[in-house]
Design a protein that fits this description.
By secondary structure, this protein is mainly alpha-helical. The chain contains nine helices and no strands. The longest helix is centred in the last third of the chain and has 34 residues.
Length: 243
């Protein structure tokens, strides 16, 4: 007995075996990346700023083109208050409008990463880059490590990336959506350095923390979804290799 499509995107979704196969192969990659970035962040940030941190910021800030500066500022803007709380709600509303109610709630759950980030910031209590060393667009007073922007972007958009990757069938639409989600994740780290509000090791630490939070979160979502599918349609066949 096949499940009847009950959502607008049902015809674009992959079958449960493909979802399971993709999740089981992508999550170890995410986890490995997180562990590697943790090591890099610890090495880079052992004692305040260092030559690598300073050199990376000064190199980025050497690009003085107005368009590049505007891009860096625009990339960081959604991560400041109150946008950093409004944007996730808008994304969840967008999912809910497609009748993806559980996914909308799971997306809102990623906001717990913001609270976890604040705990780490308070424990590490690293100072922000100094205006005497680099150009600071606007001084911030909270601790620097890890970058909250990087954590939030990577967890929220990374979870959406995961949903699209494992659930949607291969198509030009899927590819375009994945690229659209990946671009802000890639750019937010450099933007924090360019604005002089974080060091390279802060950004790496943000990516590391996000990856380590995202891997078990995505696995929990996948487990819940496949369990829900089995309850509705019965056991699914063993997964086979799919892209």
């Amino acid at each position: 007995m096949q499940r009847e499509p009950d959502r607008p995107l049902a015809e674009a979704e992959e079958s449960p075996p493909i979802v399971a196969w993709r999740a089981r192969h992508v999550l170890p990659v995410v986890l490995a990346a997180g562990v590697a970035l943790v090591v890099l962040a610890l090495v880079a940030g052992r004692a305040g700023s260092n030559s690598v941190d300073l050199g990376a910021t000064l190199w980025l800030q050497s690009f003085q083109q107005a368009a590049f500066a505007a891009l860096m500022a625009a990339v960081s803007w959604p991560g400041f208050f109150p946008q950093n709380w409004i944007v996730p709600v808008l994304l969840a509303v967008a999912l809910a409008s497609l009748r993806l109610w559980p996914e909308a709630l799971w997306l809102l759950g990623t906001q717990a990463a913001t609270l976890a980030t604040q705990v780490v910031k308070d424990v590490v209590h690293r100072q922000r880059p100094s205006p005497e060393l680099v150009r600071v667009a606007a001084p911030l007073t909270d601790p620097s490590f890890p970058s909250g922007h990087v954590v939030q972007y990577t967890v929220i958009l990374g979870f959406l990336f995961f949903l699209v990757y494992v659930l949607m069938r291969r198509s030009a639409r899927r590819t375009a959506t994945l690229v659209l989600l990946a671009v802000p994740i890639v750019l937010v780290g450099p933007s924090r350095l360019y604005l002089g509000q974080h060091w390279l090791s802060d950004a790496l630490g943000g990516y590391a923390m996000a990856a380590l939070l995202l891997a078990p979160y995505c696995w929990a979502y996948t487990t819940w979804r496949l369990s829900r599918t089995r309850q509705r349609v019965g056991p699914t066949p063993a997964p086979r290799p799919y892209a």
